[in-house]
Amino acid sequence: MITLNQPIIQLPIKVKRPEIELLLCCTRTHIDSETAERIKTLLQQNIDWTFLIEKATYHGTIPLLYQSLNTTVKEAIPKTVLTQLQNRYHANASRNLFLSHELVKILKLFEANKIPAIPFKGLVLAASVYGNLAMRQFSDLDILVKQEDIVKAQKLLIAQKYQLEADYYGWQHTFVHSQKPEIVVDLHTELTPLSYFPFKLPDFETLWQRSRSLSLNGESIIDLSFDDLLIILAVQVARAVNEGRESLAQICDLAELLRIQQTSDWEELLHKVKSLELKRPFFISLLIVNTLLNTPLPDQLKQAIQQQIQIDPTILIYAVRMQKQLFTEVKTPRFIKLFFQHLMIDGPLSRMPVRVYLVWQFLSFTTRLVITNSNQADREVFPLPSGLSFLYYLIRPIRLVSRYITNSTYR
Hints:
The protein is of the alpha+beta class.
């Protein structure tokens, strides 16, 4: 059962500019009567259209902004503004259609060479969640393959005139087409790297077995199951904030998926979340879409979040921070971001009294940051192939001790 648009809890966040509230009201595919009235009220204020479009561009929500304004209050929008948004909407639609053909081509190539592949993120979300390729902005084509197939997949792309642009320590490989640089393909062997963002998501075999089919340009492709997609989108929302890539578009992805899926075994979903130790990022992200976009939640999810807040009120700290970061002009220091990332991880000590838990998390986080988190300096001093990247966990403490001894000697 889906509840009405009642936020689970009122977070202490105030939107200071009407443009931001207008953007939030428009970042959805369906505008209810209450939201439509709020949009009309906001437009009575002196809207800075340049600022609004800049924010929508940053958050990748130009198509949603255009559709909402065009279908709700078209006559109240300056003609030049509406024309600009319309042009960008159609340009995005044309680009996405072009990229969809390229994605199908690559997937057929992989299939012919017996490489199981799961496309995910931008383009697939446009088709499966939004039901319209024009409604989602994205920069590349993301494809998940098995670790043992990555070399074979790379060779196939290179044979198709793609060039390897970047290799992110073995878990993500970025390719750019040599003749069509607007086509960028990211080959993934992990949904999110455990060494950087330590959440254990379902492995490839599990995702493949639970996958479903999706029609794209008349072709059948593989798509993630609803449960897997919901969990992954929630984790991606949390991860994006920690990386300083706060994205309203990703929050809307999660909100739209919840909107279109009204029948599911929510108890089974919650069991999967618990078994993966993802309750904290999962509930935080659901709390965000519920309070920020007034997204209705099924009663089972709503009750689970309310119970979790009583047990673990630290998730409210994170949810408030996430909302503040969305539109702030002040960048949070990396140390603070990493601490909040660490705070989000479920563990056996997560039910400690809040103050004790925060102190414990800070101490364990600091240890992890200083001792075990390899960084670019480690890789520059000791360049290793991606297959040996695990050795950086041994190299880092040795390098830090050596640097400390050297500095002490020359004081």
